[in-house]
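Predict structure. Chain length: 102.
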Amino acid sequence: MEATLWDRGTFHAELGQWIDAARVLAELVESEPDASAARLLLARAYYHSAQLTRAEEQARRLVADRPDDGYAHLLLGRSLQRQGRHDEAAGPLRLASALGAV
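Prediction complete.
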């Protein structure tokens, strides 16, 4: 993982600068698509900056790649909830709970 981009992305996230974090982390994920930690933080940054469709896309990718990651299911479910898609959110939220993420 490119340390400079990761450091910048986490710096912005820690400060709650979610739009800046998303911009940096998107660049990192583009260059390293298998960097799941960066993708998870990118999904969080999108979620917290109300870029919910993007958050959903990243969370779906995480769930597909790591189906045992309860937090990825939680993030997907919450992203769907915030979009008003409560019926779709129920499944990921149940899985998140079963995996101990809630």
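Summary: Helices lie at 3-14, 18-31, 36-48, 52-65, 70-82, 86-98.
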